[in-house]
Write a sequence for this structure.
C-alpha cells in the first residue's frame, strides 16, 4: 500500500498567516492527489485535485503543488473560516490512502 | 443537486453484522464510482472501499478484506456496505461519496457489548 505521510500533524497560526502543509508519498503517484478540508461535525470538502487544480468554488488563497512523492497545500492568508483539519488523499493506486491530517488551530 | 444520504448505522454487538445504505439522487448514478470512507470520532479519515458504475469492479482497504463487501443497486440508485464480524475498532462514522467530491453526512456505527 502507498503510505501518505502528512506534516505537521497540527499547527497554530494567526489570521493572515501563510500556512504550508506537506504530504509525502511512499512511492510515486504522479499528480493523483487531492487535498481536503474538514470541520468538526461535517463531511470533508475537496479543495484541490490533480495536486494543483483548484476545486470550483474554493477561494484562491488555497493552492497545491508537487508531483510524484512530494506535495504541498498552501493557504496564502489564513482566514477565520480556514481553521479546520486538512487531509491529503492519493488515488493513484488502490487501496486509496489518506494522510494522517493536519489540524490548523488559532494562535 | 447531488445528494447522498447514508442510513443503517446504529449499535451492534461485537461479532455482529450491519448493512449500510447510501441513497443517491441528483445525478446519473450508474456513471460514477462510489466510495465508502470511515472516521473514528476524533481521528482521521480512512478510505474503506469503492465500486465502479456497473458494479463489476471494487477494491477494499487491506485490513477490511473478507469482512466487508460493497455493492450497488443502480435501479434503486443505492450503494451498500455489508459489514460482518464487527469489532470495537469498526466503531466510526461511515461516509459515502461520489468520486470523493460529493459526500453524505455520514452514519454512525457503534460496536459495543
Amino acid at each position: 500500500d502507498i503510505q501518505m505521510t502528512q506534516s505537521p500533524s497540527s499547527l497554530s497560526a494567526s489570521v493572515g498567516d501563510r500556512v504550508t502543509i506537506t504530504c509525502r508519498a511512499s512511492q510515486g503517484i504522479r499528480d493523483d492527489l487531492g487535498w481536503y478540508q474538514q470541520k468538526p461535525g461535517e463531511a470533508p470538502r475537496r479543495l484541490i485535485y490533480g495536486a494543483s487544480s483548484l476545486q470550483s468554488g474554493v477561494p484562491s488563497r488555497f493552492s497545491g503543488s508537487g508531483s510524484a512523492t512530494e506535495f504541498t497545500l498552501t493557504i496564502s492568508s489564513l482566514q477565520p473560516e480556514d481553521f479546520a483539519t486538512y487531509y491529503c488523499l492519493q488515488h493513484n493506486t488502490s487501496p486509496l490512502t489518506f494522510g494522517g491530517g493536519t489540524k490548523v488551530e488559532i494562535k | 443537486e447531488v445528494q447522498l444520504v447514508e442510513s443503517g448505522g446504529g449499535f451492534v454487538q461485537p461479532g455482529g453484522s450491519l448493512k449500510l445504505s447510501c441513497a443517491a439522487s441528483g445525478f446519473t448514478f450508474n456513471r460514477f464510482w462510489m466510495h465508502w470512507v470511515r472516521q473514528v470520532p476524533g481521528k482521521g479519515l480512512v478510505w474503506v472501499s469503492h465500486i465502479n458504475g456497473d458494479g463489476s469492479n471494487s477494491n477494499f482497504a487491506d485490513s477490511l478484506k473478507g469482512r466487508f463487501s460493497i455493492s450497488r443497486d443502480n435501479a434503486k440508485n443505492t450503494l451498500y456496505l455489508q459489514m460482518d464480524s464487527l469489532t470495537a475498532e469498526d466503531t466510526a462514522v461511515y461516509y459515502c461519496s461520489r468520486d470523493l467530491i460529493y459526500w453524505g453526512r455520514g452514519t454512525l456505527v457503534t460496536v459495543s457489548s
Remarks:
- Chain A touches chain B at residues 1, 34, 36, 38, 43-46, 49, 55, 87, 89, 91, 94-101 (CB under 8 Å).
- The CA atoms of residues 7 and 22 of chain A lie 5 Å apart.
- The mean pLDDT of chain A is 97.
- The two ends of chain A are 36 Å apart (CA to CA).
